[in-house]
Amino acid sequence: MATYFVIIGLLLMAVTTAGQQTEEQLPEMGNNLEQATAANITIEDDADQQLLNALRKRALGLNSAGEASLQELGLLTALQIDNFLQYRAALGKLVSIYELQAIPGFDLATIKRILPYVRLEDEFKMNHTMKDYLHSGNHTILLRYGRQVEQGKGYETHRYQGSPDKMFARYRYNSTKYLSFGLTMEKDPGEWWLSRTRIPTPDHYGIHLFIKNYHWLKALAVGDFTVNMGQGLLNWQSQAYNKGAGIMLLKRTGEVLRPYTSAGEYNFFRGAGLTAQHGRYMLTAFVSYRRLDGNIDSTDENPITSSIATGGYHRTETEIAKKGNIRLASMGGNIKYAGNRWHAGLNFITHTFTPLLQKTIKPYNQYAFAGKRMSGASADFAAYWKNVHVFGEVAASENKRTAMVLGVLTTLAPSVDFSLVFRSYDKEYHSLFTNSFGNYYQAANEYGCYAGIVVRMSRAFTLSGYSDFFRSPWLRYRKSAPTRGNEFNTQLIYTPGKRSEFLLRYVYQVDQQNVLKPGNPLPVLGAVSKMNVRVQGKVQASKTLSLQTRFEYVNQQLDSQQQGIMVYGEIAQQLNSMPLTFTGRITWFTTTGYESRIYATESSVLYENSVAQLYGKGWQYYLNIRWKVSSRLTSWWRFHRVAYPRLNSVGTGYDEIKGTHKSLVQLQLQYSW
To answer: What are the tens digits of pLDDT across the range 401-438?
Structure first.
């Protein structure tokens, strides 16, 4: 153990990083990405980061912002938004940005977080003319290239049909509150850049047109868009925070229709949608038709979809054969009535699969959807009473099975916030694009109760934590019987000044999982416990220098004990003489198995969600260079390597590399005008 403490000490003494980059990812986003990666979910949606960076250029006017615009920020809780609106309604427009300190719930940390994105008045006064719509925004062209330096087995054996290059291109015109249109193209490593068809197209492309706030027309979506209704039981395709990301940011909020401009190839609709408003009523309707990847089991006359592929990879002949096999037609809508500090809505959706969907029956999925048409309806609500906010949604699928989530957010004292969320998801409830609050990222086969609290003990100390109890009344993958579990999280943040912050986090989770016992041919349930301790520090020494480091320890026990340790320090330097920023990180990690792997978000090129998954024994390091060539052109350069000194090969399957390390190079250019 002495070696570990020596490494930590060296990092704490030697690591100095640059002042915050303008594109720095919020801690909640990073925590959410780590949790999603741990659940084998890849998040390629960068809509939230695009919005925040757009607001850096044209900030949100607080004196005219409505509830929906404040929710879109993703930085304020429902209670803070209501307190702000009530304050403005009672006392009129803010006369100074410093007046935010007088609003209940707006502590210095909250104000510091939102300051880069808000101002008192809107910079642009809209007259709702086409000229205004076309001249109030910004044009952006983003080009990204990446390549793994070492050749994997899939390329050496020619199993991968394309090159190892990863390419992404996006053009977008964006006027945050009024108009957005653009084109997105992407190629994953191993795929063809242009498809082998009569009409050359990229492996994945998307086009969108989105108009907002044109008189009675609140939103019009043509092309690619997402639909987000209620609390995610019926349909939610944008990012949403889950456990661990934010104690008081659990409620799903935002507008029903949003433009889709990201690289993910699964979680969106393609068609048209419209939201219209009349008085206190708001009506949304949409239709979509697109192709999904999947396996088709063909008989002489009755082809059947046996599985849906969500990864979006088309590298091998097998993956290419799955491309576009499933035709999905979707339609739905929402009607919402907004009262004084409350609203209620009705939602419905239906999906039609061609061919019909029939998954391969296994014990744990025998209640999964099977058929041609999946449909559902729900009712959602939210209301404020004094300093209490209640919200929820109740949904039913086509088989009359239900799902329900109910939540309460409240302020127990000026320095104490409390949240409570109860969920009940029937084992036979069916939904396709869902992202509701829970332990398993799927609104089915789960019952649970979550309680969280935030205590601002002083200006320097904030203590928060939550407990969550959950159970599954039916089998799950790697769980051959009904299971139950619990999770406890405690976090202390110490902020002695504006330039430093230190964090201590402890997480303990108990669940159940299949275990093979000697002499027993059938797996039995065993208790699996996992403890995670994180110590993190960040100190900004000047405008260009700061310190960031993290130590993490994991202890996982099932039939045996596995442990993992990771420590990193991030180095960067922003030059005064040139518009260059250098960011580097060195990470040392050791784990005794895959189950004790550790996740850590990484600084990367703008808009890329990068999460390191570390297990085994080795080192990881990277260097990022950000060069602002001119007021319109910015470039990013990145080199990333993971080294395993004791291994002869890295990776498995077609991704296996002969050698002790795996390297990645990236280049990104962004031109805006």
So the answer is: 999 999 999 999 999 999 999 999 999 999 999 999 99
- Report the distance separating Cα 102 and Cα 93, nearest Å: 13
Rounded Cα gap, residues 569 and 573, in angstroms: 13
Average pLDDT on 386-395 reads 96
Beta strand ranges found along 298-401 (DSSP E): 304-309, 326-338, 342-358, 370-385, 388-397
For 487-524, how does the pLDDT look when each residue is reduced to its tens digit (9 = 90+)? 999 999 999 988 899 999 999 999 999 988 888 888 88
- H/E/C letters for each residue in 277-322? EECCEEEEEEEEEEEEEEEEECCCCCCEEEEEECCCCCCCHHHHHH
- What is the rounded CA–CA span in Å between residue 39 and residue 44? 15
Q: Count Cα neighbours of 172 within 13 Å in the Cβ-side half-sphere.
A: 24
Mean pLDDT to the nearest integer, 184-196:
86
d(CA 218, CA 673): 26
Distance CA 330, CA 15 (A): 52
Round to whole Å and give the CA distance between 141 and 451.
44
CA distances from 300 to 284, 304, 354, 360, 576 (A): 41, 11, 16, 18, 71
Residue 410 has a pLDDT of 97
**Mean pLDDT, all residues of the chain:** 91
Per mean pLDDT, which range of 213-222, 236-245, 623-632, 648-657 is the poorest? 236-245
Tell me which DSSP letter residue 228 carries: B
DSSP type of residue 245: T
Closest CA to 359 of 299, 309, 288: 309
Q: Answer whether 392's CB lies under 8 Å from 344's CB.
A: no
Sign of the dihedral defined by the CA atoms of residues 49, 50, 56, 59, in that order: negative
What stretch of H or E contains 598? strand 598-601
